[in-house]
Each structure stands twice: as structure tokens, then as C-alpha cells.
Design brief:
homotetramer, about 300 residues, eight-stranded parallel beta barrel, globular
Chain lengths: ~300, ~300, ~300, ~300
């Protein structure tokens, strides 16, 4: 599987009245990403509040997404389960419904050591032919995987073939690039480090931003590809405060708020998560206006 | 509710063949704690692998524990859910089955801010009359709550009445003691800091250690109460390496291994968690022998 | 050398007009410590602003202190030099003037590895027969030494014979105690952890607090020795906010401010260090009044 | 003063026999930097072991450097003193000998607050007309200054006009750029982040690397300027392991070792600093060979 560019992440809309997933609103989320010309769509990542869904809800969102995208771009399904057994169940399900790839992170209660992590990934790989993106995000998942360890998994586990790095430490990307001699594709998962990640050799950028700012992330990716540094830098700094804002406010809450500002209410995030405060919502509105988004 | 002394934590035995909860073995776990003269029993904490159980398993373990203890000591049920809705369900269930108290920690994917945390605890308190022990353990739960904030919750949320502090920072206990003028009971959740916590005014010690070393934790508690410092220090340093070992090896894996060493196999922890390595198991055996436990 | 109890630290008074060391005021500082019945006096530690003195000033303060104490209690001289050569010079000087012990910490610009640290201490030990207290204070010195490493130095370097631990991590003290089987004396260097350090087996407490609160630190030490836990706890919590305050405000600035409040102005600390703000000074005044000190 | 490009840092050679500064060898160090076409030369930074020199040595090295450079490029003199008084003395001296700029970092024993830092910089600025580069390097200096605070100093302190950022956190550079609307020049002080820093808008790169790898840092700077991303990335990754190696080994020890490998022994660093181990020296030799330097 040859993936590069912008991987657009969807959110999971809830109905404010009964708190249930609002599938009628999931359609425009996916359409917004396709309109933004993303190179792939990823459902059920952090932004999709996957950790807060029931198994059934998770399955329905995954299935709905695959159907709605309908082959126009590849679909990646996020898996971040506490038990290996449940991660396997979900990996199998993703394959059954026709997803193109799974993104697997080791959500944890007890810290996991490398042997535990390796067997977790290996067991998932053995359960499905889908390619696996190894996703490192210690801030949400509670486990940090070194570049060396992730590259060992790419080398030794059949379907593990790419890495998403979200620590925000650019040195991790240097290590992945150097140690793999530029051969193992890695993606940026830290929005406000996108410029540097792409310059350091990232194959692409995993981001929920296209939900709100359309093609602008794509333009940034293209500028770097075209070696147009001045334009890349200009585009990045235009988006910078917005990108930092959504990271620091919590992706799900911030993007849902942004949709609401833009006229398509998506409900709040699931409790205990709260929507943005009125002040934060006003800040976001200003940032979107500055970016020329229809806020 | 007036709780003090040793709160003994149970593990959740699994059947190695099918991976299911092994209720036949849960009985001796509870009996071991009662034999160790603990002042209360807590089920479904970290040591109980609560995070790795299905809802049904969690309910059955809770119910089984209350029945087996049968009023001989109070029963505390741990709740560490990602959504407020599910935490409420479990709090109601704990009340229905006759538990005496719930211990609530804010397990998290996205970091929670204080407003989110407050509403989470308040909603649970509104759903059940059970007293609530606020449990702070950022290493497993991903959220850190300050002494100031936890005391505010004790003050402003009806059923919140005590604190379990597990950061391992003795200053947190000083703060709780000083800011509450010694009025808000707090418990030690960091095994290898038990001596200091008790000297700093902790009402008791939440620990899985009695599963393996019987009354020795109780003896330590008593020595501090009796102002027998030399004995308290001697007892603490005798247990110290064992306590540090089980914390660093992961409580569930270590205690299950210890039961196996002592002749009552309890199965391994649930994957991705792995049992102790052979080397670690040998270390634990030596530590138990040194402590005079029947290893 | 058999040292235990309270090691009282002196400050270095400056003349506010010309910024020079004010020897007339150094006398009452030392006398205050002696009146507080400290078991030893240490000059030129953090509280003594040793890092901010010229070589000549450092020598004069050391010499003055030894003369003024005049054998009534042992005198410890602090050495925290960037180069090994200068540390040796100062160690020799301390010996020449009749000091009883040196306290050596590895002040650093580049981080030092264990081989560098070992040779630094060894070279100093070879240059003087004075016993050496190894002082670990990464917050000011920029290097952290593990209990294991410090114990290796005590074992392998002739004059290295005791440890002062100032990280504020009680586990370090447990390690020192356990690994040395209680044989290597260690001192508490973290004021607001004094109760726990003494209960964990510390031989004593290194503190500038007697400058302002007289015998109260001694009373706390005695209460622990006499196994009077309730009194020890009461005394500790009485002093707690004061101890935390002077640590967080910077020992030198806080204690100088306290002397001023008590009617013996000692000048401000040396720039860039600033005296306490008016607000902080008022806080300190209140804390001293609560402690019954003549504020 | 309009500075950009490569600011080359010199080391301070010592005579291995008597440990004194070896001025005969300082000449080739400076010449090597000039041959590497650096845009400015900085003496007495971290690499120059300024913290380990006596006042007299420091003055002589500063004076020698200015004379040897003789106006061919601007000369920057590093100042990292513990007291404001001594920092002022050195700033005046730098002006007297004809240096073009001073680079000031707040070396600390006690942590300094922003008021203390501000007054420190302001006092230095009042003492000399030389432009000041504010240098933030918490790893060696023990104090961390935020982008917001440094920009405030640039705005409010007469001679403070540029920033050198060495935390290794690319977000600091984004902040400086955005908050100053690209108006305040900042330099990269973290060698193995040079590519990203330049892409993020840094005016240049402060580095000791040209001592060993000649014009290669300049080529990297030029490639970014020319928007030749592929070449910039290729050059950066060629140098990457070397850059990371010298940072992690300690700049002074590593560069002195490199000079020795290249046939111009410069003595070891001053104790307690030690030269590279034999193994590390072999690694460095290999890295230099791979870079085509005459190793």
C-alpha cells in the first residue's frame, strides 16, 4: 500500500438530545474531507472519540465510513484497545467491512513493556491481512514507543508497514528516517509540527484540520513537495495558531465547535469531555475567520 | 463511614485455558485478605485488572466479592471508566449489590480539565448514595489531580469524603493534611512509601500486598499507631524490596505470580499484559522467602 | 567523625551600601545557630550564596566561621566548584583553617558522567584528610547522582563517608538505607520532607531554618528520636508551611528577609538574586508569628 | 547589526602539560572557522569552556580572538556569569577590546525568576553599547526563558536584539516567529535540529561543527535559502549523526577529540570534564570519515 499526502480524520457526531451517534451528520463530515482532497480518510482516531464509543457504535461508525467513502480514497480505521483480544476482534471487523488499513495504538492502563507491545501488534497482524500503521501517541495512550522499537516491529511483523509519530519531538522523525535509510514511511501526527515533519521526510500528515480549513493542509503539503519553501512557511504560519489551538483544546471538542461555527452543529463530545467554553469558541471563530474559512 | 487501617485489594483470577474469570479461585483470594485481618476489601482496582474486564465480568466480580465477604469487613468497589455514563452505571450497580463504598478514578484518553473532572465526580455522586473515595493515580489513569482540587471536590460534592493518593510524592499528603487541617481522611496508594504516608497522617494504606505477605502490612500500620518507630522502620524496610518489586513489575502480574509460587495458581494477567519472566519470578520467590512467607 | 542531629546552615550577610560581605553581621548569624543548639554548623552552602562569592570572600567567610565557632560544634564547609582544580584548592584551604568536614557537590555547566564525578571526588579526597559529605542537589547543581553511585563513592573513595540527599524523593533515602544495610549515614537536605527523612533513617537534617525558628528543628529531631510520633507530627506540621516557603522563595533571600523581620537586617542577596517582594515578606512575617518566633 | 548564516564557535585549547590555555593552538581554531566561511565567530560559549576559565583566561581568549579575526567577520563574545556584577565587567571588557556583539545567558545556581532575569539583562545593557543576543540554554544554564519573556526583553531592553534558542523544542521557534511577526531574528542553538530551525525562519545557526566539517554547515544553510529542499534534506541527514554525536558527547570534549583525529591536538577539556573514551573517539573518527572530512 502506497500512501502519502494528507490523511484526513473524521469526528463522530452525537445527537445532543439522546447522546447517540448521529449518522445523518457523519455524512457531511466525510464529504467535507473528500472535498478537501485528502489522500485517505481515517475514522475512529482520537478526533473520532473512539475511546468513548461502545463496541457496537464503533462498528457502525467504521462500516458507515467505508460505505460513504465508497472507494474514492483509502479508508484507515483506528484501533486503540486495552486488551489484545478486543483489538483482534476489531481488526477482523475492519477487514470484513472492506477497510484498507488499520492504525493501531497501544492504549494502556498498566504501562506495557516492549515484549508485551510486540506480541500485541503481532497478534493483530496474524488476525488480518490489513496493513498496519503503528501509531505512537503517549499523551493519550500512556505508552511511548521508541523509533528503534517501532522499526523493529515494521521489520519483524508481517503487516506492520508504516509509522505515525505524535510525540511532537522532531528527533523521533530524524531517527526513523536515518535508521531505516528513508525506507520506512512515517506520518506526522502532531499538527503544529507539520512543516518540520514534512521537511524531515514524512510521507504525509494525519490531521483532522481539513474538517474545518478545507484544502489548506493539502496546499501546505504540496508546497513542500514542490520545494517552494517560502510558500510552505507562509502557509504553515497562517495555519499555526489554528493548529496549536485545536491540539491544545482537544481535537474532538475543538472540531465539533468549529463545525458548529460553520453552520453544521455536530453535538458536543461525550462526557466527561465538555464542549469548548464560550471564550474558546470565540477564539476559534476568530482563528477561522483569519484563515478565510467560512466561519 | 469511618475507615482506617489496611484496605486489602483483590486480584481477578483467570482460567488459563479459556481466559475467563475463575470464580473458584476468587474465593481463596478474598479469604487470604480476610485472614490477613485487613480492615476493608477493595475489588476491581488496578490489581484487579478492572480496566481489562468486560462490563459483565466486572459486575460478576463485584457481586461475587460482596457475597463472599458477607459483611465481615466493608467492601470498596473500584470504578475507572472513560465515560461518565458508564461510571454512573457501575456506581448504581455497586449500590444495588450492597457494596459499602466506591473508589473512583478518572481513567482518560483525552486529558481532562478540572471542570470535566468535577462534573464527572458530581454526576456519579448524584447517582448513588455510596460514599466516594477520590483516587488519584496519574501513572495509570493519565490525569493528575492536585490536593487543592481534590479537597474542593470533598467539600463541594455530597458523597466525596476521602482521598487515595498514589503519585508517590509525599508533599501531596502534607498538602492534604495541612489544607484540610487534618480533617479529610487520605489513604496511601504507593506501597513503597507506606511508612512515610502513615507518619504524615494517612488514615490507612490501600494495598494488594496482604495477598502475599499476610498480616505484615497490618503489623506495620499498628507499629506506627503505637508510636513504635523502631519497629515500624524495621518492618517497613523488611517489606521494602518486596513492595517496590510488585509496584515495578505491575501489581496484577506480580501478585498472580506470587500466588502461584505459594501454591495457588491464579492464571496470568490478561493480554497484552504478560506474566512475570522466569527471572522475575525467581526474584519474587527470594523476596517472599526473606519475608518468611510460605514461598 | 560521628555526626548526627541538626546541621545548621549560615547565610552570608552583605552590606547593602557597597555589596561587600558584612562580617560584623556574620557573628550574630553564627551565634543564632549556636543558640538554637545545632549539632554542627555548615558555612558556604546554598543558603550561604557560596556560588556568588569571589575566591577571597569565600576564604574569608570560611575562616571567620571556624574562628567564631571556636570548636563548640564541628564546622562543615561547602564546596561546589566548576573545576576540580579549584575544588581541590578550597578543600586544602578548609583543612588549613581547621574546618572539621567538607560538603562537596558537583556544580556543573556540562552535565557530568559518573566517571567524571568519581574522579572529581577522588581528586578532592586525595588532596585533604578531611571527611567528605557527598551532596546531591540536582536542582541547583545540574547533576543528579543515584544512591547506588554515591554509595560506590563512599565505599571506594577514602574520605567520602556520608551523604546529603536533597532531591526531595523519599525513595532515594530508602535506597541508601537498604543498599548500605543502614551503615552509611545520610542527611536530609529537603526541608519540607524532614519528618519522613528522619523516620526513614536519616542521621540528621541539614537546614538553615534554625537561623529563624531557633530550637524548633531540634525539637522535631528529638521527638522522632524519642519515638514520640504524635509530637513529631505536630511539630512538623507547625513548621511545614514555613519550611516550604523558604525552599520555594530561595533559601538565601528568604532567610535574609526573615532576619530583617526579626530586627537584624543582613542585606539582600547578591544580584541577580533579589530580596523577597513586599508580599512575600508579609507572608513570611505571618508564618514566623504563627511559629511563635519573635517576628 | 545585521547577522545571519553560520555563527562558528571556537573551542579553547589547553596545553596538556600544564593545563593552561594554549594560544598557539587557538590561532588554527579560528583560521579553521574562517576557512569554513562562517558569517561570524563566537568565542567563549559552551564549546569554549568559558565556565571553566578564570577571569584572566577568559579576557585573554576574548582579546586574542578579536585580534586574530581582525575584522574579517563579526566577533561575538559569550557571557554566562553567576553574578550581575561580573557579567557587567565582562560586557565592558568585550566592548573595550572591540568585539561586535555579546551573547548573554543566565548561568544560575538558584533558579532565577523573570524579574531577576530582566534586571540582569537590563543592567548589562546599560553598561555597554554592544548588541546583545539573548541565549536560552536551560540544559547547561539551569534556567529556562519562554519565547514570550525573551521577546519582552528584546522589546524593552535597549541593546537586546536577537535570540539564540537551544532547548531543542521547535515550538519555541514557531512562537518567536509568530509573536514577533517574523521581525525578531532568532538563531538555532540545537545542532541536530538545524534543518527544521532554518525552515521555521531562523536567521542562522550557531554551531561549533565547522571546526571539524568545514563548509558543510554553510552548504546546508545555503540550500535552505535557495529553496533546494532535497539537497538541504540530503545534507542535513549526512551530518545528522555527527551533529547528534557532538551534542551528546559534550561539545568541547567531542570537538577537541575531532581536532586530534584530524591531526591538530588541542588538549583535553578541563577537569572534571574528561576527553572522549577510546570507543567514542573511534565512533567520531568513523563519522568524520563518512562525512568526507580529513579524519
Amino acid at each position: 500500500m502506497n500512501l502519502s499526502g494528507i490523511i484526513g480524520y473524521s469526528i463522530t457526531p452525537f445527537n445532543d438530545e439522546d447522546g447517540q451517534v448521529d449518522y445523518e451528520n457523519l455524512a457531511p463530515v466525510i464529504d467535507t474531507l473528500l472535498d478537501a482532497q485528502v489522500d485517505a480518510i481515517a475514522a475512529l482516531g482520537s478526533a473520532g472519540e473512539a475511546a468513548y464509543l461502545t463496541t457496537t457504535e464503533w462498528q457502525q461508525v467504521a462500516e458507515y465510513t467505508v460505505k460513504r467513502v465508497d472507494g474514492r480514497v483509502p479508508v484507515v480505521i483506528g484501533i486503540a484497545e486495552l486488551t489484545t483480544a478486543e483489538a483482534i476482534n476489531r481488526a477482523k471487523f475492519a477487514y470484513q467491512i472492506g477497510a484498507d488499513m488499520i492504525m493501531v495504538s497501544p492504549f494502556s492502563y498498566y504501562k506495557l513493556n516492549e515484549e508485551e507491545l510486540f506480541l500485541h501488534y503481532q497478534s493483530i497482524s496474524n488476525a488480518t491481512p490489513l496493513p498496519i500503521m503503528i501509531y505512537n501517541n503517549p499523551a493519550t495512550c500512556g505508552v511511548d514507543m521508541s523509533p528503534q522499537f517501532m522499526l523493529r516491529m515494521v521489520s519483524d511483523i508481517k503487516n506492520a508497514c508504516m509509522i505515525k509519530e505524535s510525540t511532537g519531538d522532531i528527533q523521533r522523525m530524524h531517527k526513523i528516517y536515518k535508521l531505516s535509510k528513508g525506507k520506512v514511511p512515517f506520518f506526522n501526527g502532531c499538527n503544529h509540527m507539520a512543516l518540520e515533519a514534512l521537511n524531515a521526510g514524512a510521507s504525509g500528515w494525519c490531521t483532522v484540520a481539513p474538517c474545518l480549513i478545507g484544502k489548506q493542509t493539502k496546499y501546505l503539503f504540496d508546497a513542500v513537495q514542490q520545494q517552494n519553501n517560502h510558500k510552505a512557511s507562509e502557509l504553515f504560519y497562517q495555519q499555526y495558531e489554528f493548529l496549536e489551538f485545536i491540539v491544545q483544546s482537544g481535537l474532538a471538542a475543538a472540531v465539533k465547535s468549529g463545525f458548529s461555527i460553520q453552520g453544521t452543529p455536530m453535538g458536543g463530545p461525550r462526557k466527561p469531555l465538555l464542549p469548548l467554553t464560550a471564550t474558546a469558541q470565540q477564539q476559534l471563530k476568530t482563528l477561522l475567520l483569519e484563515l478565510g474559512s467560512h466561519a
